[in-house]
Write a structure and sequence with these properties.
Elements: H1 9-15, H2 30-43, H3 57-69, H4 72-80, H5 95-104
């Protein structure tokens, strides 16, 4: 598969604070493992079908399972949802644009009873 997914240095630097501390033996390369986990999930693959470039499929699964149970991925998503200083707006999908476009065409009635 030539279309493998790899996290960039900038992405890894942003994710680094959310990785659990390594105890004892150093972990297998975090970039390779996390890129492989993302690739498997994005493409709806079974762990067994993960490309060999990401390492053993059992290692990918074990990392995903341990980090999921420890809440690592939840903390990553929560942390990444906080805007950085250089990014004022965080958009997840086009829902924001659709709501804004709809809301801008609405007229507000003023002076009606109940206001």
């Amino acid at each position: 598969m030539s279309d493998l997914y790899w996290l960039t240095n900038e992405q890894m630097a942003r994710l680094q604070p959310y990785f659990p501390k390594s105890h004892g033996k150093p972990r297998v390369d975090d970039r390779r493992m996390l890129s492989g986990i993302i690739f498997v999930n994005r493409n709806g693959l079974r762990w067994h079908d993960a490309p060999a470039a990401y390492g053993p499929h059992k290692t990918l699964y074990n990392r995903w399972k341990r980090w999921s149970e420890a809440g690592v991925f939840i903390r990553m998503m929560e942390g990444l949802s906080i805007p950085q200083a250089e990014h004022r707006t965080v958009m997840i999908d086009a829902t924001y644009l659709k709501a804004h476009r709809t809301a801008s065409s609405l007229r507000v009635k003023r002076g009606t009873s109940g206001d």
